[in-house]
Design a protein that fits this description.
Length: 545
């Protein structure tokens, strides 16, 4: 077997702790709940867990507003619980990857409390401040990502502070070396507790140049990432995953090329954004365009073919459920869930499974504003309402692409509250939990979960899946995703019908192959020797030497 970093053969599994498993009946998932479900992850074969923020937080943005980086939110447990999670996961050969949220903190962090109370406090320069204009106005009309102005007036400080996401999330001033030292010390403290790495939230924002309003991939970004590597990562066998909504195929190697000494991989969203509306973004649904989708997926495979590493995903805590967004949560629910997994997992990169994806969990249809929990969606509604947008128009976009879709509780069984809690769940459980749940999937040897288990095994055991070169084919076909993987004399052909209709597909010569059928969603195939008639949501992979 070819040698490679452990994370190039591993599959990640993202846990949103609030919705994974509640252990004490308060309706909120917690760390002891996660520990109780580790055998489920071991059964899937995943190599590491990306744990969304479990730090102390007032939960204004569901944990992405951290008030203490070295403590655990009481509703999730204690530091002892965290140590036990790291240890118990380790016994199952699963690493714990923490979510590093250091573009901003919570406004309840003791740094910010000191900063706004005392202009002479050292923590004052941990944040970004600006004096009011002649008429008391903010320094610019910059809008926050979650709605409202990005510059927020602080009465006690008599200045504006920057909250690029929301007033509850003041931006940290990375220009201050003392602030960076605090972050390095905190990261090393977590590494010393045994974590396997960090997923770095909106890391592309830390190098911002506020004076010139350059926020994404600002001029200081790579200087800071290289300093981070020197101070925390060098010599450690860990994984670092850098999230960026702005990274391009051209700039991606700057983050993760071998000689850059920055990150292990990038977590980019260009394939996701390719399906968003040009003006209204994700909030106005539009028909799925497979050709533009493939252009991004295939283009990123090429861009990082020799320098860097891709993350592979279709869903996470910020995105809708993939079987609802790209597949079919009706007649072809199971088949489309398997096909989407096949398409994603057999590309080159590190795949991520978002909790519940392995059983085909779907979007939830919310009806009233009081059912929403997402700060982004609620903020958007207030802005849209002021502009005269109807509730029905807003609801259509929110129910298709809103973040609450992915944050409903994991559906473990068909019992009360889907086995998530014995109390009242913090957010509505999807009504389909009686049909879609882990217990039902576990009893099915050819179900969605079994398919995921096999995909995880193939990456772990087959060099061509983990490390093979990618070659996209039939790029302009409007209904089919097809590609090859190459490693030495090995080839792996992958074909996926991305529709609920029967499709005629005439594969190019490069895709003609005969060998071992590794997996299929409809019928086993061990060769491609001419035109194919693909059943709805059919997918298969063939390996040849």
């Amino acid at each position: 077997m070819t040698e490679a970093p452990w994370w190039q053969r591993a599959v990640g599994y993202q846990i949103w702790p609030r919705s994974f498993q509640d252990s004490n009946g308060d309706g909120i998932g917690d760390l002891p709940g996660i520990i109780s479900r580790l055998d489920h992850l071991a059964d899937l074969g995943v190599g590491f867990v990306w744990l969304s923020p479990a730090y102390a937080s007032p939960q204004a943005d569901m944990g992405y507003d951290i008030s203490d980086y070295q403590d655990i939110a009481p509703e999730y447990g204690t530091l002892d619980d965290m140590d036990r999670l790291i240890a118990e996961a380790g016994k199952r050969d699963i690493g714990i990857v923490m979510d590093l949220v250091v573009n901003h903190s919570s406004d309840k962090h003791h740094w910010f409390e000191a900063a706004r109370n005392d202009r002479n406090a050292p923590e004052r320069d941990y944040y970004i401040w600006a004096d009011p204009g002649p008429d008391g106005e903010p320094p610019s009309k910059l809008r926050a990502c979650f709605g409202g102005p990005a510059w927020n007036w602080c009465e006690r400080a008599q200045q504006y502070y920057l909250g690029y996401f929301s007033p509850f999330q003041p931006d940290l001033n990375w220009r201050n070396p003392a602030l960076r030292r605090e972050i390095w010390d905190m990261m090393n403290w977590w590494f010393d507790r045994g974590i396997a790495g960090f997923r770095m939230d909106v890391i592309s924002l830390i190098g911002k140049d506020v004076d010139n309003e350059v926020f994404e991939e600002g001029p200081f970004l790579h200087e800071y990432l290289q300093e981070m590597h020197r101070e925390t990562l060098r010599g450690r066998d860990v994984v670092t995953i850098g999230e960026s909504w702005s990274v391009s195929r051209e700039t991606a190697p700057l983050y993760c090329a071998k000689d850059r000494d920055e990150l292990s991989m990038v977590f980019q969203f260009n394939h996701i954004k390719s399906q968003w509306h040009d003006i209204h973004g994700k909030w106005k649904p539009k028909p799925f365009d497979l050709v533009s989708f493939k252009d991004e997926l295939f283009g990123w495979q090429t861009a990082l073919a020799d320098e860097g590493w891709n993350s592979l995903f279709l869903s996470n805590h910020d995105l809708p459920r993939q079987v609802s967004k790209y597949g079919d949560h009706g007649e072809y629910h199971e088949r489309s869930a398997k096909a989407l997994a096949t398409m994603t997992h057999l590309m080159k990169g590190t795949p991520f499974i978002y909790q519940g994806e392995e059983i085909g969990m779907t979007n939830i249809a919310l009806e009233r504003l009081d059912q929403f929990r997402d700060l982004e969606a609620i903020g958007l509604w207030h802005e849209e309402h002021e502009r005269g947008v109807s509730w029905e128009t807003f609801l259509a976009g929110a129910n298709e692409n809103g973040r609450d879709n992915s944050r409903t509780p994991v559906q473990w069984d068909d019992g009360e509250n889907a086995g998530f809690t014995t109390g009242h769940p913090w957010i509505k459980v999807n009504d389909n939990y009686r049909e879609v749940n882990v217990a039902a999937e576990r009893s099915r040897p050819d179900g969605i979960m079994a398919h995921y288990r096999e995909l995880v095994r193939l990456r772990r055991d087959r060099d061509v899946v983990a490390l093979g070169r990618f070659e996209g084919v039939a790029e302009d076909h409007p209904h089919v995703v097809a590609y090859l993987r190459h490693l030495g004399d090995e080839r792996l052909a992958v074909v996926v019908n991305m529709t609920g209709e029967e499709v005629r597909f005439d594969p190019p010569e490069t895709l003609r192959i005969e060998g071992e059928g590794l997996l299929a969603t409809v019928e086993p195939r061990d060769r491609i020797d001419g035109p194919l008639t693909l059943a709805p949501w059919e997918s298969f992979a063939i390996h040849a030497r």
